[in-house]
Write a structure and sequence with these properties.
The protein has about 600 residues and is of the alpha/beta class. It is built from 19 helices and 18 strands. α4 links the parallel β1 and β2. The longest helix is centred in the last third of the chain and has 24 residues. The chain binds 5'-O-[(L-methionyl)-sulphamoyl]adenosine. The site of 5'-O-[(L-methionyl)-sulphamoyl]adenosine has 19 residues, from β1, α4, α10 and β14. Keywords: Aminoacyl-tRNA synthetase, ATP-binding, Ligase, Mitochondrion, Nucleotide-binding, Protein biosynthesis, Transit peptide. Its EC number is 6.1.1.10. This is Methionine--tRNA ligase, mitochondrial. One of its GO terms (biological process) is methionyl-tRNA aminoacylation.
């Protein structure tokens, strides 16, 4: 299928379909290079964040989880703009002992606490531009119905039995722990108390008659699933860790608690003396959102990408797929795992008083600035440390100076008095490198720039696929630097529009730089949507020209017409990104060359 813009070009140029396709072949990297994935452009994709506990206000780690999912989803929409094909859910996890205890400590009814904190998450996500299509709360009636239905399916398949369950339980992490995962820590009064080795949270001994899920039956099916789907858990080290866990013993799992102990949850159908385990309750949210148990859910499942933090990997990569297999369904297609943010080298915690409020950050650094920071600096494979100076330094250098400076250099009235997208001159910049002639001005480094930017969309797509969004941004940033080098090298401010010798080359330099900026703006949309909009609007790129399918970089270089050539730039609306000062108060400095 040819894209509409290509067909428009075809009509205008009278070129044959075949020759155009050949020409748009391997060297032409618009969306052409993304074609393998575009095949699936009409296929549905369902992205999810974890649902967030409402025991405390959101912090930057929570926002990070949501931003990763948002960027993945936005990038997917950029590949296939049909919004009906993507769904993106987030929400709040409102049941369980942890919330029951937090409400009691705050002197609130659980519903009051849930309403209050859930609202904070919704507000934060709206302010941060999280483009979710669904927000679920586990206290909703539709969810209770879905969970009870799911329970019924597991029961009818003989996967639940009643038995005595005895072991350590950690209310903060809402999980049972084997003896080997518990250690004793000295308390303030000298006596020691048991804590989880992994999280450091207190644990208590529990002995109850519960419903138990036959998890042990699923060791081999889970191993087969993971071995047959090496991309199921990304990045790869996490896939490997789960396979290692599956080499260890996999005991059956208690999936209910005595209601007298845990009343804040969904009752076991037909047995009010038991409340469903909060993780089983919470995981089913991914089905509730897509309409389970109604058949409509099947058009979204299992085309699912769960975005989760490393601390909840076992729940998503072992318990959840086992529950699904048990219920006769497929495991999720992909699980993307990220690491955590620490603050000045320490784990974020209420007791340490070092929790960073994401709304303050969004105000201080702007929504796009803070989104860029978290996604540019956050590395999924290992923890990242937050401190303010890092944010200021990164945003000033990459958004204000490099990107903002580049835009200003190419659009400032002094250099571009006609305020248009100037023409590209093939005599000055022939498509064959190494040609010599009186009008040839392009140098070897300029060809390297064109080739780097031409391959950028594909590189970025691959990084998104591997859940390395920071690498996608690093690649964009490196091309921005290269483009600044190109402008610096040819110093358009020293060239004269009046000179017949300079003018075609001056136009070409600006044309190439604007084309590079158009690529950067398009690729930055998933991470900095408003900033990218501002950039693309300044370049005069219309809304229908902003998808990856429309991204034909530098067509004149490849012998094709360029729809932007001669077009008026969009209106000047001020600096692209205001420079921050080190003392963290705003200094809105304009960038001039
Ligand atoms: N309610 C469960 C998830 C149930 S999903 C069916 C839960 N909630 S949470 O609020 O504790 O965590 C939600 C997400 O935030 C998790 O992905 C978790 O890894 C992430 N983060 C919590 N602290 C974080 C950091 N310090 N840094 C980055 N992400 C962090 O777990």
């Amino acid at each position: 299928m040819l894209r509409p813009s290509v067909l428009r070009l075809l009509k205008r140029t009278g070129a044959s379909r075949l020759s155009l396709l050949e020409d748009f072949g391997p060297r032409y990297y618009g969306s052409g290079s993304l074609s393998a994935r575009d095949d699936a452009s009409d296929a549905r994709a369902y992205f999810t964040t974890p649902i967030f506990y409402v025991n405390a206000a959101p912090h930057i780690g929570h926002l990070y989880s949501a931003l990763l999912a948002d960027a993945l989803c936005r990038h997917r929409r950029l590949r296939s703009p049909s919004t009906a094909a993507t769904r993106f859910s987030t929400g709040t996890d409102e049941h369980g002992l942890k919330i029951q205890q937090a409400a009691a400590t705050a002197g609130l009814a659980p519903t009051e606490l849930c309403d209050r904190v859930s609202e904070q998450f919704q507000q934060l996500f709206q302010e941060a531009g999280i483009s979710c299509t669904d927000f679920i709360r586990t206290t909703e009636a539709r969810h209770r119905m879905a969970v009870q239905q799911f329970w019924g399916v597991l029961k009818s398949r003989g996967l639940l039995y009643k038995g005595l369950y005895e072991g350590w339980y950690c209310a903060s992490d809402e999980c049972f722990l084997p003896e080997a995962k518990v250690t004793w820590q000295p308390g303030p009064s000298g006596d020691s108390f048991p804590v989880s080795l992994e999280s450091g949270h207190p644990v208590s001994w529990t002995k109850e008659e519960n419903y138990i899920f036959r998890l042990s039956q699923f060791r081999e099916p889970l191993q087969r699933w993971l071995r047959g789907n090496p991309q199921a858990i990304t990045p790869e080290p996490f896939h490997h860790v789960v396979l290692q866990w599956l080499d260890e013993e996999l005991p059956d799992l208690s999936v209910s608690r005595r209601s007298s102990h845990l009343h804040w949850g969904i009752p076991v159908p037909g047995d009010d003396s038991q409340t469903i385990y909060v993780w089983l309750d919470a995981l089913v949210n991914y089905l509730t959102v897509i309409g389970y148990p109604n058949a409509e859910f099947k058009s979204w499942w299992p085309a699912t990408s769960h975005i989760i933090g490393k601390d909840i990997l076992k729940f998503h990569a072992i318990y959840w797929p086992a529950f699904l297999l048990g219920a006769g369904m497929s495991p999720p297609q992909r699980i993307y795992v990220h690491s955590h943010w620490t603050v000045c080298g320490q784990k974020m915690s209420k007791s340490l008083g070092n929790v960073v409020d994401p709304r303050t950050c969004l105000n201080r650094y702007t929504v796009d600035g803070f989104r860029y920071f978290l996604l540019r600096q956050g590395v999924p494979n290992w923890d990242c440390d937050y401190y303010d100076e890092k944010v200021v330094k990164l945003l000033n250098s990459e958004l204000a100076d490099a990107l903002g400076g580049l835009l200003n250099r190419c659009t400032a009235k002094r250099i571009n008095p006609s305020e248009t997208y100037p023409a590209f001159c093939t005599n000055c910049f022939p498509s064959e490198p190494g040609l010599v002639g009186p009008s040839v001005r392009a140098q070897a480094e300029d060809y390297a720039l064109v080739s780097a930017v031409a391959t950028l969309p594909k590189q970025v797509a691959d990084h998104y696929d591997n859940f390395q969004i920071y690498k996608a941004l690093e690649a964009v940033s490196s091309c921005v630097r290269q483009t600044n080098g190109f402008v610096q090298r040819h110093a358009p401010w020293k060239l004269n529009w009046e000179s017949p010798v300079d003018a075609p080359w001056l136009g070409t330099v600006l044309h190439v730089a604007l084309e590079c900026l158009r690529v950067f703006g398009t690729l930055l949309q998933p991470v900095t949507p408003s900033l990218a909009d501002k950039l693309l609007s300044r370049l005069g790129v219309s809304a229908s020209e902003r998808s990856l399918g429309e991204l034909y970089f530098l067509p004149r270089f490849y012998g094709h017409p360029c729809p932007f050539e001669g077009r008026r730039l969009g209106p000047e609306t001020g600096v692209l990104f205001p420079k921050l000062d080190q003392s963290r108060t705003w200094v809105v400095k304009a960038h001039r060359t």
